[in-house]
Amino acid sequence: MSFLTIENLSAFVGPAPILRDVSLTVTAGEVRGLVGESGAGKSMIGKAVLGTLPPAVRVASGRIVLEGEDLLAMRPRDRRRVIGARAALIPQDPLTALNPSRRVGPQITNRLVDILGWTRHDAQVRALELLDEVHIPEPERVMRAYPHELSGGMRQRILIASAFAAEPRLIIADEPTTALDVTVQKQILRLIREMQARHGTALLFVTHDLGVVSKICQSLTVLYGGKVLEDTRVGDFFAGPTHPYSAALLAATPKYTDPDASLTPVPEAVIDGVRAEIEAFDRMHGHV
Amino acid sequence: MSDTPIYDIENLRLSFPDMAHKPLLGPAPRVEILKGISLRIPRGDVVGIVGGSGSGKSTLGRAMVRLIEPDSGAIRFEGQDITHLGEDALRPLRRRFQMIFQDPMSSLNPRRTVGAIIAGPLKLQGFDRVSGRVDQALDHVGLPRVFRKRYPHELSGGQRQRVGIARAIATEPDFILADEIVSGLDVSSQAQVLNLLEQLVRELGLTLAFISHDLSVIRRLCRHTVVLHRGEVVEYSETQALFDAPQAAYTRELLDAIPLPDLDQVWV
Amino acid sequence: MADARGLVKRRAGARLWLSAGWLTLLALAAVFAPLIAPHDPLAQDLFGARLPPFWEHGADAAFPLGTDSLGRDVLSRIIHGARVALGVALIAGTLTCLIGALLGLIAGYFRGWPDMVISRFVDIWMAFPPVLFAILLIAVLGTGLSSIIIAIVVIDWTRFARVIRAEAMSQGAMDYVASAQVAGRKRFSIMLAEILPNVLPTIVVLLTLEMGIAVIVEAILSFVNLSISTDQPTWGSMIAEGRLSIHQAWWVLVFPLITLFLTVLSFSQLGEGLKDHFDPVLR
């Protein structure tokens, strides 16, 4: 059953297309990777779903359907309510995602109280439960701490706890481990997978790292220039990507067990090919 | 002379004041970042320096090119003690050790053209034929000469990092320190920049210290690898040996934490 | 594929040209005041007092903006007043900027004890109430153009020092500074050759703001009769005199006020416009 469906989403900054007819689905309980290099539009898709696109971006066409409701057709107020209740974000940078001048506790509970109408006491109990669930020792002490007193990994755990707090059906993780050390990254990935499996949440995982995708996702979408190049199961992808650009991307990804077959530059011809594909698309749709 | 290492670092210690815990009166307590590092880099070697955040790898690098002054210990560059040399005494040596920075957006002055950026160190070090050398440096890093007139913000991330490399090689240094220079780049430009660096080391006979958090990248590029953990060297060996049989527990932990792009999903 | 960033370019255009245009006009008027002013700004004519501006009933075409209660030509007085206003703006603004920006750069880039000394000094300085300080200074120095300029510089350099210090500090943390150091550039030369060009846009904005402020301060001091001798027309003294006859001759007050307003506005817009126009990063 498809839980999140994006259909033919196109978006522009001024006259320049940044998303070109993007379609993808996330089924309930599935983890889908959204992969691409900088400027591929992967974060834009996450932002489009959550309704947090920058003001300069104009969505021209397409549908974003979350559990049968078309988000783009709704009034902004209703959309915020639906998203607030059913979706959540794990942000990229744990250092800036928490307000430095407020204690951690209220930053987790406020959403529950303000948006979902829980009592302060229930929210408090839930927050403690969650901090325990993300393996934070002494949750009571951490609730009273300020963000700067905690390490990056600890803060990312708090953000994960906070994302799962309201039992959302969909979580968008936007490069959640990019700012972390590899050893911490492993713990956080393990935690995200554990939480996702326990809560049966659908997860859209935005990343540039195919290594991370191979460890946590079941399906993936490869983007370039705001266009979907490949949409496939992870097993099929790592057995042999079908699009030449995906294959080149995989060959460029570092792999220390196979130094000769990794870190290969993406051939010019492949990039030219993708660009030609995009230009042909733009011509067909009259965005030249 | 030939067996004098290009860098000989002995029991290097370095600390910073910890302003977060500064008492109302009196000096701030100091946090020790480097806790007695010893390291010899032979001429012509390519050494990877790897570690997590807080390992002191960047601090060590900045001490090596004397952007910061260590508390104690010794840094000898080609046999000469540069640990506490003042700026004036360092100036003639500066031509011989250069640095490439992590973030090319921050390390290239936004108000200068690429040509002026590369010419900067050449002029300061009193080179002749500056313009010709700028062209040569651009050729070396595979950027067209017309880029001289461009500003950094007009370039892509990979191109900017090439400008940083061109600036570092322009003075024909013996040693280059590269601090996380590919970590901000997309994988496709990452591979290109690494290839370029590999080729330059070979062609120009450079000694290179390559700081990175990414062991996969280090394996690709470096002959020797130093693993730093909390300001101490936990392992220093040939790269091949380090990957075949890592000695330190921390090295094993690092290797184990790398998510390899393959189908092994038991990993997490 | 078009680059999205190119599309959000800022437009400096209109406000830059409008403000530069007004200020150029004013500058020309100031320089050639004796040639272009239709009358002697001091010539009194009690029979032709309080003549209204040209479009009103009873106006005299020779006095297009009317005359004041002593029969002096308002337009000529505004033109001559521009000499004082722009002179003060230029000299006081530039001096304030030079002193404040230099100290700010040194404090922000060198940190350590130079910063300690300069910053403490700025803190103490800023604790004095500025208007009182100015009046006190003029009382000590005596009235006159140079006293006004000194008063403005002495009071306002801290504004530059503070802002430029913060800016220099953040620029000093950038790696292009470390890179210049690795290349062997001297510290003072790094400050001037690397950091200064990057804080220049801020300096330009502050400088033009300061010029506007200088015009206002001069007007205020003239208004309270602490400026220069009464035989030199200034906008401030015109406003002060105009205030007394507001019900009989509004134009004596309103025209210098409009001129003052447009001038100060033009200075601030000129700064913003220049910054946008000459910034290679935004261009």
From TrEMBL, chain A:
Superkingdom, natural source: Bacteria
Membrane topology: Peripheral membrane protein
Protein localization: Cell inner membrane
Protein name as annotated: ABC transporter ATP-binding protein
Gene Ontology, cellular component aspect: plasma membrane
Organism whose genome encodes this protein: Antarcticimicrobium luteum
GO MF term (any one): ATP hydrolysis activity
Pfam families cross-referenced by the UniProt entry: ABC_tran
Entries under Gene3D superfamilies matching the protein: P-loop containing nucleotide triphosphate hydrolases
Record keywords: ATP-binding, Cell inner membrane, Cell membrane, Membrane, Nucleotide-binding, Translocase, Transport
UniProt KW ATP-binding keyword: yes
Domain ABC transporter residue range list: 4-250
Family that this chain belongs to: Belongs to the ABC transporter superfamily.
Record keyword Metal-binding present: no
Predominant place of localization: membrane
Automatic annotation (TrEMBL), chain B:
GO molecular function, a single term: ATP binding
Protein name stated in the entry: ABC transporter ATP-binding protein
InterPro entries referenced in this protein's UniProt entry, alphabetically: AAA+_ATPase, ABC_transp_ATP-bind, ABC_transporter-like_ATP-bd, ABC_transporter-like_CS, P-loop_NTPase
Record PANTHER family: D,D-DIPEPTIDE TRANSPORT ATP-BINDING PROTEIN DDPF-RELATED, TRANSPORT ATP-BINDING PROTEIN
Organism: Antarcticimicrobium luteum
Assigned protein family: Belongs to the ABC transporter superfamily.
GO biological process: transmembrane transport
Domain ABC transporter span(s) in chain numbering: 14-255
TrEMBL record, chain C:
CDD domains, per the entry: TM_PBP2
GO cellular component, one term: plasma membrane
GO biological process, any: transmembrane transport
Transmembrane segments: 16-37, 84-110, 130-155, 195-228, 248-267
Gene3D superfamilies referenced in this protein's UniProt entry, alphabetically: MetI-like (1.10.3720.10)
Domain of life: Bacteria
UniProtKB keywords: Cell membrane, Membrane, Peptide transport, Protein transport, Transmembrane, Transmembrane helix, Transport
Subcellular location per the Swiss-Prot or TrEMBL entry: Cell membrane
Membrane topology (UniProt): Multi-pass membrane protein
Coarse class of the protein's main subcellular location: membrane
Pfam families: BPD_transp_1 (PF00528), OppC_N (PF12911)
Residue span(s) of domain ABC transmembrane type-1: 82-271
UniProt-listed PANTHER family: D,D-DIPEPTIDE TRANSPORT SYSTEM PERMEASE PROTEIN DDPC-RELATED, OLIGOPEPTIDE TRANSPORT SYSTEM PERMEASE PROTEIN APPC
Family note: Belongs to the binding-protein-dependent transport system permease family.
Descriptive protein name: ABC transporter permease
